[in-house]
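Changelog note: in this version the structure field was regenerated for every chain. One regenerated record is shown below for reference.
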Amino acid sequence: MLSEKMEAALNEQINMEAYASFFYMSMASWCDHQGLEGTAQFFYRQSTEEHDHMMRIFRYVLEMDRRAIVPPIEQPPIDCKSIQSIFDEVYAHEQKVTKSINNLVNLANRENDHSTHPFMPWYVTEQREEEALIRNILDKLKLIGDGPQSLYFIDKEITEINAQAASQPGQ
């Protein structure tokens, strides 16, 4: 059974994952409006993935006979300065999520929660992969630069990332 402290922490994570889903959807909308179809599709896919992460925790809390709470969602940003600023924000957000996941693992350890502890490694791995993916995109953005054709090349690179993700099982 989950302690009240663990239940509250998992519900906070549900909120964070829900916000991430809407954050990515907002980024997708901005990219779509800018004609960056590949980048928009990347963010739509990320939004769906974050929703799935939220639902996984939501179902876990219920499975543990505790109350999963549907969170209120803070309005994500709707305007962005540039594609670079978007990915800088995304990277900072992923780092915040990683810290929160690590805190959940630490709490499970401190509370000797032998159910939640084995539930969390999937999230630890997922966050490592998410941060690496965004760092990879940021590296590509640096290489491409911000010249007149840069958005075209950035969108093309992210379209390729989408194609790679689509070809992997489970994506």
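Spot check on this record: The chain has six helices and no strands. The mean pLDDT is 93.
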